[in-house]
Automatic annotation (TrEMBL):
Domain Histidine-specific methyltransferase SAM-dependent residues, every copy: 6-310
One Pfam match: Methyltransf_33
UniProt entry tagged with the keyword Transport: no
Molecular-function annotations in GO: methyltransferase activity
Organism domain of life: Bacteria
GO biological process, one term: methylation
PANTHER family xrefs: ERGOTHIONEINE BIOSYNTHESIS PROTEIN 1 (PTHR43397:SF1)
UniProt keywords, alphabetically: Methyltransferase, Transferase
Name of this protein: L-histidine N(Alpha)-methyltransferase
InterPro entries: EgtD_Methyltrsf_superfamily, MeTrfase_dom, MeTrfase_EgtD-like, SAM-dependent_MTases_sf
Amino acid sequence: MNTFLHDVLAGLNAMPKTLQSKYFYDEAGDILFQKIMSSPEYYLTNCEMEIFSGQTQTLAKTIKNGFNSFDLVELGAGDASKSVHLIRELSKQKVNFTYMPIDISSHVIALLEENLPKQVQHLQIKGLKGEYFEMLEKATQISSKRKAVLFMGANIGNMPASEAITFCKKLRALLNKEDLLLIGFDLKKHPKIIRQAYHDANGYTRDFNLNLLKRINKELGANFDIHAFEHYPSYDPATGSCKSYLISLKKQTILIANHAINFDEHEYIAMEISQKYDLEETENMARQAGFKPVKHFFDKKKWFVDSVWEC
Ligand code: AVI
């Protein structure tokens, strides 16, 4: 059984039903995520862009931390539209670095390897296609240079807090004393602003969630009727958890590769968590995972933070 089918069946046979948001990103999902990122309600991208484009020199100095030769590894690089500001600055300063973007999509890696050298002259780039930890390990095998790791976009928020700590511990275990991590968190703010970011007027976030049912239909031969499910986003200021659900609008049975999955009317599928933090919580996470938080970069509104953690 392939992993996707295995995970989908395990999730939909569980109580409560759940699907993993890492599966949102097929070709259609990538396009919808781009649309979300350029929606006026989805402030996260603009905030982090403001940090990378407005504080580039201080970022470069902090990342270098006195070293003039290292590898810049980016976990989940995407189109690198934010990190390119840092990359350009390091290149301008004649820092001897190799940019190592890690992404699960070979398409993303191919695009970066083709496009970035056009934007940054003499850039040394080595794309790594695969899972974060496996590829980070590979990066350390390819080169023994110091590593500065970027994990941006509030991607850490897509794990529940306890999992996030485990993730950071694993990351720490792969790094050495002089290495460093820059990690992006979406900060707690007025609940209305957060909820709107996941409930955009154009319905891109709704379509992004429903697209996973379409993907299951297409790739696993299932028969979800997407009109029989409704997207329900929620934000709880008490916990900082922003969650997306799909609600079954009727009692129904879905067939996935000959497995029947029964839904009650109004039963939900938990689709995604986007955890929001306050600064103290991020610092506690750093320490629990064996890092030392040393610097915070905020946007003007202090809605988002890119924190630098030393090993
Ligand atoms: C990728 N990740 C940080 C996004 C988030 O904000 O949780 C994914 C997303 N889901 C809905 N909108 C954006």
